[in-house]
């Protein structure tokens, strides 16, 4: 049931809500108001822009709802703007239009009311009033509107006490939550996303509906689910979102591999860490250092194969041998299931999952130039990202142990920096190429060419030869001799 709440005048509360400059000084609002008046229709600022201004969060997107044609209003605003070129995009199938004006993205839509068939998330849409439009909004904090009409310009229309929920830091649906989520199940992911981004609680009734309606998420495309999941991952403290998803049962539906990390087994009095909570801590640690979505995904997946590789050894205790290699192989099917890109972003995640133990191993033992060269060669341009992940992976409750590992990482990084300056291995390309080998021995592409190339690479990484022709030519002549190859043309050094 919609509450009857007297509109609050933002002119009286503007200073405390940091809205005055945006509403009264931003010429876009007056431009929209004048254009709506010219068309003799009502217009309102709605949704996330209102929420974010009240919370003093940065926002460059403005949503305008009008009681009439959103496309007509957008076209008139574009003409009235006085700009020679206005980027106007019209989406007739959806009855919406978007203008990029002075760095703002302004979207226009006519007020609508919706009804749903249970077997589809696509609503039956009809023209409606501003009240109808607010009724169909996902959460109370997104259902507030500001009037741009002459008779009540600047008034907050807040029928569901969204302002109160902002103050209480609560995510709550405007109408009965079971109906809200059943009608559009993606709103369940959005509830968790907003709670995570804003560090809000989810209202108990709303959370109960998440649990009850979770299976409805099956009708939502994986692409849209992944989009919301990625927004959760990009939050300041993404672990909160994962714990909410797990608590309501959504995580098991969308990402069962992650849920498999949960739990601790004990044998002969020896237990291992709970890899679910360890991974969430690694994710949060990574988030403190980087906003890179794909580095955060590497944090999420770095131990994903531990359940499959877990073994108990009476002498060593619990082991997870090979989890980095198997985990790297699991990245692609997980990305495929979530319909995420199978491009260089996925390959970046695969590489970091495969290499995440290497710097840790180096920090425990005497560091050789050979081991450092191999790490530089394999990590390449992703070395900084790999080191962020590895530092984030140190989650022991023993503070002294953490400090010791981090000090060792400092030593590893210094040695890597020094070696990189000398050997330039980030973009390692041996000067001895396959073409040079074929010319030297007068042979076509063959197994022998590959054998010699590998031998050259290994010799350089082991520090046996330098990556230049002076060292390389004598070496390949010797390697060719081992294979019964005689030179037909010795390259000029």
TrEMBL record:
<dbReference type="InterPro" id="IPR043519">
    <property type="entry name" value="NT_sf"/>
</dbReference>
<keyword id="KW-0547">Nucleotide-binding</keyword>
<dbReference type="Pfam" id="PF12627">
    <property type="entry name" value="PolyA_pol_RNAbd"/>
</dbReference>
<dbReference type="GO" id="GO:0003723">
    <property type="term" value="F:RNA binding"/>
</dbReference>
<comment type="similarity">
    <text>Belongs to the tRNA nucleotidyltransferase/poly(A) polymerase family.</text>
</comment>
<feature type="domain" description="Poly A polymerase head">
    <location>
        <begin position="43"/>
        <end position="172"/>
    </location>
</feature>
<dbReference type="InterPro" id="IPR003607">
    <property type="entry name" value="HD/PDEase_dom"/>
</dbReference>
<dbReference type="GO" id="GO:0046872">
    <property type="term" value="F:metal ion binding"/>
</dbReference>
<dbReference type="GO" id="GO:0005524">
    <property type="term" value="F:ATP binding"/>
</dbReference>
<keyword id="KW-0808">Transferase</keyword>
<dbReference type="GO" id="GO:0008033">
    <property type="term" value="P:tRNA processing"/>
</dbReference>
<dbReference type="Pfam" id="PF01966">
    <property type="entry name" value="HD"/>
</dbReference>
<keyword id="KW-0460">Magnesium</keyword>
<keyword id="KW-0692">RNA repair</keyword>
<dbReference type="GO" id="GO:0016779">
    <property type="term" value="F:nucleotidyltransferase activity"/>
</dbReference>
<dbReference type="InterPro" id="IPR006675">
    <property type="entry name" value="HDIG_dom"/>
</dbReference>
<feature type="domain" description="tRNA nucleotidyltransferase/poly(A) polymerase RNA and SrmB- binding">
    <location>
        <begin position="199"/>
        <end position="259"/>
    </location>
</feature>
<keyword id="KW-0479">Metal-binding</keyword>
<dbReference type="InterPro" id="IPR002646">
    <property type="entry name" value="PolA_pol_head_dom"/>
</dbReference>
<keyword id="KW-0067">ATP-binding</keyword>
<dbReference type="InterPro" id="IPR050124">
    <property type="entry name" value="tRNA_CCA-adding_enzyme"/>
</dbReference>
<dbReference type="InterPro" id="IPR032828">
    <property type="entry name" value="PolyA_RNA-bd"/>
</dbReference>
<keyword id="KW-0694">RNA-binding</keyword>
<dbReference type="GO" id="GO:0042245">
    <property type="term" value="P:RNA repair"/>
</dbReference>
<dbReference type="InterPro" id="IPR006674">
    <property type="entry name" value="HD_domain"/>
</dbReference>
<keyword id="KW-0548">Nucleotidyltransferase</keyword>
<protein>
    <submittedName>
        <fullName>HDIG domain-containing protein</fullName>
    </submittedName>
</protein>
<keyword id="KW-0819">tRNA processing</keyword>
<feature type="domain" description="HD">
    <location>
        <begin position="276"/>
        <end position="395"/>
    </location>
</feature>
<dbReference type="Pfam" id="PF01743">
    <property type="entry name" value="PolyA_pol"/>
</dbReference>
